Amino acid sequence: MIRQWADERGAEPCSVPDSDYGGRPGRLLFDFPGYGGGNLEHISWDDWFRTFDERELDFIYQEHKKDGAQSNFFQLENPGR
After folding, report:
1. Which of 44, 48, 55, 47 is nearest to 78 (CA)?
2. So where are the chain's domains?
């Protein structure tokens, strides 16, 4: 479901540079086309999902804005925090 949501928006998995720890990606994000993500570090889907699963994160997202336009809003939440 996460990958489908991202693919529908042309988003690529990425991380914030220099946020990694222990050789794993740090802050997980998506690079959406046209939103100036040039300073993001693109990573593989395997690395993105491995980190997501290891941290036991929840993916909270919005399909459409109030006006019906497609939304890019998402949040990764750690329910244990």
Report:
1. 55
2. 2-77
